[in-house]
Amino acid sequence: MRVYYSSSSPFAAKVRMAASHCDLEIESIAVDTTAEPADLIAANPLGKIPALVLDDGTTLYDSRAICDYFDKATGGQLLPATLDAWTKVKLIEATADGIGDALILTVYEERYRPEDRRHKPWVDLQMRKADRGLAALETLLADLPERLTTADFAVAGLLGWMSFRFKGKLEAERPALATWLAAFPDRFPAFAELGPRPA
């Protein structure tokens, strides 16, 4: 299998960490999504990462779909079996992913729009979404099971990305999340290699 990714993407980091946790052999291919490389477009017509190509050529994209595939393929290594525990994990995963979606839109507004064309009310709206999500996430983390799940990798991907894209925000506003992130490499040592980092 191979996955198209960027080293800075929280969603790609989530997938790569999940694959490592499941002991799946996966080739990581770094791509620049803005260049719309043909291999990435063939794997995902939306041109987004992560995109996974299976051994038989079948493709999957969206980090949740890919991680769910890994879970099914490995006999449930990433998600709890009981409905209640599964629901809690998927809620935490969706919250982390949603925060990432909102924050990435604010990054793109600054990166791709000239300063005089940026829409501050829209950026403020995205930040309010992210801030509400981060507040919820602090509470929800207590529901994580002891063993690692897709939710752990989603949260680690998000917070690891925030540590350089929104430097100091967690420590200043959500210290419990900063503490969780600081402790995560002890639970998952491969985070140093597979977690998000500046491109």
UniProtKB/TrEMBL annotation:
It holds the Pfam family GST_N_2. Coiled coil: none annotated. It comes from the Bacteria. Residues 1-78 form the GST N-terminal domain. One of its GO terms (cellular component) is cytoplasm. InterPro entries: Glutathione-S-Trfase_C_sf, Glutathione_S-Trfase, Glutathione_S-Trfase_N, GST_Omega/HSP26, Thioredoxin-like_sf. PANTHER family: GLUTATHIONE S-TRANSFERASE OMEGA, PTHR43968. This is Glutathione S-transferase. It comes from Jiella avicenniae.
